[in-house]
Design brief:
Number of strands of chain A: 31
Pfam families (chain B): Sof1, WD40
Number of helices of chain A: 11
Oligomer: heterodimer
CATH superfamily of one domain in chain B: YVTN repeat-like/Quinoprotein amine dehydrogenase
Radius of gyration of chain B: 27 Å
Protein name (chain A): WD repeat domain 46
Distance between the termini of chain B: 93 Å
Strand content of chain A: 25-35%
Helix content of chain A: 10-25%
GO molecular function (chain B): nuclear estrogen receptor binding; ubiquitin-like ligase-substrate adaptor activity
Strand order of the largest sheet of chain A: 4-31-30-29
CATH class of one domain in chain B: Mainly Beta
Shape of chain A: globular
Subcellular location (chain B): Nucleus, Nucleolus
Number of strands of chain B: 30
InterPro entries (chain B): Sof1, WD40/YVTN_repeat-like_dom_sf, WD40_repeat_CS, WD40_repeat_dom_sf, WD40_rpt, WD_repeat_DCAF13/WDSOF1
Amino acid sequence: METVPKPGSNVPPKKDRLQAKKKKPRRYWEQETTGTAAGASPGPPHKRKRSRELRPQKPKRNDTSKKFRISKKPRELKSPGPQRTFSGAQDPFAGPAPVSVEVVRKYCRIDKSKELPHAKTKTRSRLAVAEAQEEETSVRAARSELLLAEEPGFLEGEDGEDTAKIRQADIVEAVDIASAAKHFDLNLRQFGPYRLNYSRTGRHLAFGGRRGHVAALDWVTKKLMCEINVMEAVRDIRFLHSEALLAVAQNRWLHIYDNQGIELHCVRRCDRVTRLEFLPFHFLLATASETGFLTYLDVSVGKIVAALNARAGRLSVMTQNPYNAVIHLGHSNGTVSLWSPAMKEPLVKILCHRGGVRAVAVDSTGMHMATSGLDHQLKLFDLRGTFQPLSTRTLPQGAGHLAFSQRGLLAAGMGDVVNIWAGQGKASPPSLEQPYLTHRLSGHVHGLQFCPYEDVLGVGHSGGITSMLVPGAAEPNFDGLESNPYRSRKQRQEWEVKALLEKVPAELICLDPRALAEVDVISLEQAKKERAERLGYDPDTRAPFQPKPKQKGRSSTASLVKRKRKVMDQEHRDKVRQSLEQQPQKQEKAKPTGARPSALDRFVR
Amino acid sequence: MKVKMLSRNPDHYVRETKLDLHRVPRNYDPTLHPFEVPREYIRALNATKLERVFAKPFLASLDGHRDGVNCLAKNPKSLATVLSGACDGEVKIWNLTKRKCIRTIQAHEGFVRGICTRFCGTSFFTVGDDKTVKQWKMDGPSCGEEEEPLHTILGKTVYTGIDHHWREAVFATCGQQVDIWDEQRTNPICSMTWGFDSISSVKFNPIETFLLGSCASDRNIVLYDMRQATPLKKVILDMRTNTICWNPMEAFIFTAANEDYNLYTFDMRALDTPVMVHMDHVSAVLDVDYSPTGREFVSASFDKSIRIFPVDKSRSREVYHTKRMQHVICVKWTADSKYIMSGSDEMNIRLWKANASEKLGVLTSREKAATDYNQKLKEKFQHHPHIKRISRHRHLPKSIYSQIQEQRIMKEARRRKELNRIKHSKPGSVQMVSEKKKHIVAVVK
């Protein structure tokens, strides 16, 4: 039997001990090339063990320069080498396994750059403990990445081959049978251009045609759930929190159907709706109407939470920011406005294009927004405070529909062509130079959505529905408690109850969803001021220095005054020194950069 | 062209048979868990509401006494046994699991003033108005035997309190003076006095076992060392202290229950400023007892309620009252720190939970995990105004509620007056005195 050497428990036999001392066993990822030699030699087990120990060694700690052990105790950092035990055996993997800093940063929740107001020692120590705990959790979460089962998909061209030239048929031919089955076309020419929507687990697909055709199906098994004709124009279609409920924006009113196609509600207060968005954690259905109103409908209690007049005419471009549930509306004057139900006015207005905005999309991290306008431009905006464009590209036709995938791919529908751009990773913006994939459809694009947790892009067009294969689009590892594509009915019901219990109130929608967990400095200062007013004095101010009485005649009035003056002068000097330290920075800026001083310098301000 | 599509094998995600557990793969990526903070906040809010819904602290009432319960004692060796002495001289021993009285002794004529158990749990001492100290066996007399004390000491003056040493066969009584007795002798080893007044309670320090504290009706708290013949030091407060209790975890900390509605936690080494002033009662505080963890204590008051204070907070975290409970005279925190017992004027001993919403009995591991998680969430969001309001809200009887309002007005008036006095006198001549220093008259060594 081949065994892993355990620290202290089993000492290697004498013959091997010498070798064991010289050669350190390696982690399995450090060397991959020699694995074939060991694997290819079929022999008795003891021989295999020997051959493993005789492997050539790589230089010590070759790739550990990038990684380091994040741990609270500094002494563990100092002694990373093998440690000796009483039995003389060495622990080859002493200490905690290394975690890379980048991975830890991904899970890190606290922003250490923010300065906290001055606090009492007790509070400060409590904050320090909380911070240490947060760090510990992020390290643990980073360690658990080892347990993730699936790898994301990819598509690479061989030596300079352009991936955009690869056709869907090539991909279907190259991939396995189960993946190839995910590519399909529904030819539905009769009922006009289609809008479509995937459920949150990515398991179900609903689509509605302009001429009233509404259908929902389990697209993986291709099992049809319902198919009806509502005999009215269908403008948009959305699943509500689960696949059992379906909201359809019809010509006149908003209707809600269940998964058998039975009409449950007709919401007459939402009329002439053009676009629908569902905020799953708030149970809010946001509707944008032709009349210029943005209406939030709470689907758990059936009440309208807010009806906001955008005062920008017909609303036909809407998307949600999945990071903070803020609704982005695109207007015909080229602006994009950000809305929350708690405010009557837009949170932000961004001028994005000359001419109207045709499409808006926001990625899952909430960092980037893609917009396209009538000026045929596609722009990527930074949403973290600056709202500045990161990159711009002019497209020959201009994109009418945009969608972001879970891993940050951007799809744009231009006429009957779909282009997809990819970036470096999940958090980086897609680079707009070279498309990753292109595909031509049989009709004009009318709706686009990436399927969650599947490498699939659903396109609704005038000729029906197309399910495109886009390798590397989706998050490979889902979280079973959040949205599980393989959940049973019982699990779904349980999840529904839990989700309803922790429904986030609409008032909490704001630009920074973490604001609740941060110190509210403004109201803290206000409370302090009010307390000082109420008490008549500020309890936090330091009492003026009072010299201690001394003995043997050293407590005379003169000496008391002298000691007092000494402390006062010291404080004054400190204050002056502090202000001096701040001043020279200002002066340096004002000085001209030229080498020789000029007589005209005196006029420089 | 190299291509790989995301293709999951459903067998890895679906359970094999109906008897298996569902497979739940986890991914802790923050982008898959949006709105983490608002959702946690809502969970914390729900947990806080549920805590208030399940807050049912009253467990049982032990009735049987024929007069007000004057003193309580725990058995150090048995969690289920409790002793109580009443105003008619009767001592009862109770079994808490059965919630029944298991033995009744007519111990004294007049009040039973004090009761304490020996550290070994085999016998207990009582003092009464009939100027006697009696030692009794914890186990009842065998069949045919008469109920008699092991020893009886006849004293010259009335004894008002008694406490036993935590390790040795020595006990202390108080009355006109503090007497320290050897169990084997009928005369005190030493008697200590400081001033001439009746001493209401004496307590041994559970850690530094030679130290004693006592409080007298001339408003002072006196500390003694048993090895010395004279008292150590004393602190004089505004009003009289009824009882003191030592912190079982920190040797130098004790809490005094005062007549001026407050409790004062003192550090023995610096008596001139109390560590904390605990204010919430609206009438004289009659008794105080620490939890065995030393983090909290419970106080009984004349205002017909008991309150639980954290040691480092000036406001109480909990108030217990019932319609029928009258002035609470004595209170004890049980040794497993889960329950509180209170003895009151209307002849009942009441048993309460120390954590009002705690579920009693065995918890499954999932229940345990859920309560731990909720506890942590409540802690995390405790300062949010909405959650704070819900968790702090307590229903109070009208008498207490109106008293609180009244005293708030009085306090505000006093403060305003003080401010005016500062404003209209020469700057610096009248100082603001902090609440902690206000009630200390003097420290004498």
